[in-house]
Design goal:
The structure holds two protein chains of two kinds. Chain A is mainly beta. Chain A contains no helices and twelve strands. In chain A, the strands form three sheets. In chain A, strands 2, 5, 6, 10, 11 and 12 form a six-stranded mixed β-sheet that branches. Chain A has a four-stranded antiparallel β-sheet with strand order 3-9-8-7, with no helix packed on it. Chain B is built from no helices and eleven strands. The termini of chain B are far apart. The relative contact order of chain B is 0.33. Classes of the chains: A mainly beta, B mainly beta. The interface between A and B is medium-sized, with 22 and 24 residues.
Chain lengths: ~120, ~110
C-alpha cells in the first residue's frame, strides 16, 4: 500500500540556516504530493503541493520537487526564520489497496529555529 | 471568510461517556474527513464522507461513529468503546475525493478525566 517516510526529528537550526527535510514515498500509480505545516496548538495548513513528476511546489520561500525516479519530495528553504518553527508533514494522495482514494501522512518532523 | 470550524477546542470525557466533536465547513466541499493525531505520530484516518448521507470507515474506525446529514456538517462521536480516546482530533474537507487538497480545521483536544 501507500506509505510516506519522513526524516525523523526534532530538527534544530539557527536562524538563516539552510533547511532540508527529507521525504520519500511508496505508491502505486501517480500520486499527488503535499507538504503541510502545523503550528503549535493548531490544525494543519497546506504549505505546497505537486501533482506530477518534475513539478516544483513553492510557497513562503519553501520548495519541493516531485522526483519520480527517486520517489522523493524533499522540503527545502534557503534561509529559515524563527517563525518557521512548527511540525512539517509530508503526504501523498492516491488510490489505496481497497480502491478508494485517501491521503497518507508521514509521521511529521518538528523544526525549531533558534535566534 | 470561508473555512472549517471545530468545537470545542478542549473536551473532557468521563469514563463510559460518549462525547461528540463538532465540525462545520462553509467551503461548499463535498468530502469531509476525521483524523486522529497522537504525539510523535502522523495523522490516522478515522472516517470520511464523500457525499451527504454516505460515509466510509478509515483505518481506525473502531470506537467512533459519524453522521453526514448536511453537506456542511460532519460530527464525530467518540463512544465508550474507544478505550484510548485521548488525542488531538482534526477535521478536514476537500472539493472532491482524496486526490484533492484537503483543508483542515483548528482541531479539538480530547482528554479523559
Amino acid at each position: 500500500g501507500n506509505s510516506v517516510t519522513q526524516m525523523e526529528g526534532p530538527v534544530t537550526l539557527s536562524e538563516e540556516a539552510f533547511l532540508t527535510i527529507n521525504c520519500t514515498y511508496t505508491a502505486t500509480g501517480y500520486p499527488s504530493l503535499f507538504w503541510y505545516v502545523q503550528y503549535p496548538g493548531e490544525g494543519l495548513q497546506l504549505l505546497l503541493k505537486a501533482t506530477k513528476a518534475d513539478d516544483k511546489g513553492s510557497n513562503k520561500g519553501f520548495e519541493a520537487t516531485y522526483r519520480k525516479e527517486t520517489t522523493s519530495f524533499h522540503l527545502e528553504k534557503g534561509s529559515v526564520q524563527v517563525s518557521d518553527s512548527a511540525v512539517y508533514f509530508c503526504a501523498l494522495s492516491g488510490v489505496s489497496n481497497f480502491g478508494n482514494e485517501k491521503l497518507t501522512f508521514g509521521t511529521g518532523t518538528r523544526l525549531t529555529i533558534i535566534p | 471568510d470561508g473555512g472549517i470550524t471545530q468545537s470545542p477546542k478542549y473536551l473532557f470525557r468521563k469514563e463510559g461517556q460518549n462525547v461528540t466533536l463538532s465540525c462545520e465547513q462553509n467551503l461548499n466541499h463535498d468530502a469531509m474527513y476525521w483524523y486522529r493525531q497522537d504525539p510523535g505520530q502522523g495523522l490516522r484516518l478515522i472516517y470520511y464522507s464523500q457525499i451527504v448521507n454516505d460515509f466510509q470507515k478509515g483505518d481506525i474506525a473502531e470506537g467512533y461513529s459519524v453522521s453526514r446529514e448536511k453537506k456542511e456538517s460532519f460530527p464525530l462521536t467518540v463512544t465508550s468503546a474507544q478505550k484510548n480516546p485521548t488525542a488531538f482530533y482534526l477535521c478536514a474537507s476537500s472539493i472532491g475525493s482524496g486526490l484533492e487538497t484537503q483543508y483542515f480545521g483548528p482541531g479539538t483536544r480530547l482528554l479523559v478525566l
